[in-house]
Amino acid sequence: MDFSFGAEEEELRVRARAWLTEHLVGPYAQAVGLGGPGSEHEGVEARRAWERELGRGGWIGQGWDAPEGAYGQRRLSLTGQVVWAEEYAALRAPGRVGHIGENLLAPTLIAYGSQEQQRRFLPAVARGEELWCQGYSEPGAGSDLAGIRTAAVRDPADGLFRVTGQKIWTSLARDADWCFVLARTEPGSRRHRGLSFLLVRMDQPGRVEVRPIRQMSGTSEFNEVFFDGAVAAEVVGGEGDGWTVAMGLLALERGVSTLVQQIGFAAELERVLGLYAASTTASGAPADPAVRDRLVRQWAELRTMRWNALRTLGAQGDPGAPSVAKLLWGGWHRRLGELAVEVRGAAAAAGPAAWAPDLPYELGLDEEQRLFLFTRADTIYGGSDEIQRNIIAERVLGLPKESR
Q1: Residue 253 annotated among the catalytic residues of the structure
Q2: Looking at the domain that runs over 254-396, which CATH code has it been given?
C-alpha cells in the first residue's frame, strides 16, 4: 500500500504551512505548544481567540459532508485533512478548544440533525464562536454508557425538556457554551432504550454547575457537570433515538485526529530518546540494552500505528477500526510514560509537586512526571481497554456476548 502523498497534497502542505506561519504571531505565538493532553488549562483565552482566527481562515469544518463554503469552511479531501493536521501539529499550533464542536457535534448534526439545527449551530462552530463539550459519562456509567441515569422530562407548559443528573470527565466544560447530553427521556426505560440526544446551553445559572476535578498530576482539565432542571430546547435525531445518534458520534471520535495525536507522541518520544542519550553520555556507562530495546520498540510501534491509521482512515462503518486504534495508542502512550520516568531514574521521583497534592502543579512537576501521571488514564478514558476488546470480540469476530 502506498502511504505517500501526491502533488496536490504537497501543494496544500505548502499553503497550510505558510498560513500557519503567517498567523502564529503576537498572542498566538505565545500560545504555541499550549493546551495539549494534560495541559488543557494553559492559555485558554488566547486559544479561544485562535479558534476564531481559524474560522476566519476557513480552516474549521474541512471534513464536513457539506458543500464548500456552505458555512464559511474550506472543503478538503481526507488526505488533505491529514496534511493540514500534520502541519498544524508540526508547528505546535495552540491546542484546539473547538475540536469537540467541529469533529463530533457538527458531523452528528449533518448526519442526524434537522436542517434548522444545522443552520442554527454549524455556522457558529465554523466561525469558532461557540464551543461545545460532551455530556456522556456519569459516575455509574462510564465505559458502560447504556447505564446512564441522567433524566430529562418534557415540560407540558412549553414543550421543552428539563434535564436533571450528573455527568463526569467532561473536558472543556468550564469554557463551553453548549453541551450535547445523552439523557433518559422515557421513564422506566433501561439500557439502550428511551434515550435522547439533547443540546443544552451551559450558561444557565442555578441549573448548570461545573466543578473541576483535580487530578494527581495537579491539573484539572476534566470536570463534573451537575444539571438541576436545565432547559434543553433541541433533540437531535428524534426523541428516544439517542443511542443511535450517540453511537454514530463515537464512530467519529477517532480518525484524522489519531494522526495528529501521533505527531505529538513522536515529539514526546524524541524527548525521551534525548534524555536516554544524555544520561548514557553523562554517566559514561554503556547503554542499558533492555531500555534501549524498549525505546526501539516504541519507535517501531509508533510507525505501525501511523500506517494502520492511514490504512483504516477511509474504512467507513468498520466497527472494529476505532477500537483497534484506541487499544494501540492507549497502551503505547502509557508505556512511554513509564519509560520516561525510568530513563530519568531516581530524579523522576523527586520534586515537591510529585507527591504533595496540596501544592499547585507549577511548583515541581516536570514533563516526564506529568507524562507518566497523565498516561495512567490513557487505557481508561474514551472507552477502557476491556470495553474495546468486547467491541472487537462481539461486533467484529462474532463471539458470544459477555455475561452481565
Answers
A1: yes
A2: 1.20.140.10
**Burial track 318-344 (b if 16+ CB lie within 10 A, e otherwise):** eebbbbbbbbbbbebbbbbbebbbbbb
CA-closest candidate to residue 276, choices 261, 287, 268: 287
Q: How far apart are CA 219 and CA 271, in angstroms?
A: 22
- Place domain 132-242 in its CATH homologous superfamily: Butyryl-CoA Dehydrogenase, subunit A, domain 2 (2.40.110.10)
Q: What is the DSSP string of 244-286?
A: HHHHHHHTTSSSHHHHHHHHHHHHHHHHHHHHHHHHHHHH-PP
Interatomic CA distance for residues 53 and 73, integer angstroms: 12
Taking only the tens place, the pLDDT of each residue in 167-225 is 988 888 888 999 999 999 888 777 878 899 999 999 999 999 999 887 766 677 788 99
- The pTM (predicted TM-score) of the whole model is 0.79
Q: Which of 209, 253, 338, 367 does the annotation list as catalytic?
A: 253
- Pull the grid cell for residue 20: 500557519
Determine the Cα–Cα distance for residues 199 and 176; give it in Å rounded to an integer: 12
Cα→Cα distances 385→256, 325, 327, Å = 21, 11, 6
| Cα angle for residues 152, 156, 160 (degrees, 5° grid) | 50
- The pLDDT tens digits of the residues spanning 341-399 come to 888 776 676 654 444 445 444 445 677 877 888 888 888 877 788 888 888 888 788 88
Domain ranges of the chain: 7-97, 132-242, 254-396
254-396 has the same fold as 132-242:
no
